[in-house]
Amino acid sequence: MGGKTVxxxxxxxxxxxxxxxxxxxxAQLVEVVIDEIRDSIVRxxxxxxxxxGSFIVRSKSERVGRNPKTGExxxxxxxxxMVFKPSNVLKDKINxxxxxxKAKTPPGEE
Length: 110
Known about the structure:
This protein has 3 helices and 5 strands; from the N terminus they run ααβββββα.
């Protein structure tokens, strides 16, 4: 896969170019959005972004794992984990890009 990683600076620059705010205001806006998403996730709330996806916090109970080298059983403590579930819109865009931009034909119009 490879490719470029999008950073906060890239997001700030995109807001600057597309929205027309100053660079400082763009950076503040990106920070406020990221902070709100982070704070909501820390509180255990789901964050749903329409046409993008959902960030969901799941609780995992204590379980027994194995050390892959020795095979020794090791207890894994309970914890919360964050998962991302992409929306169907995002999945379709990803797959369309993979197929060279070929749009899916709506059902019944084949």
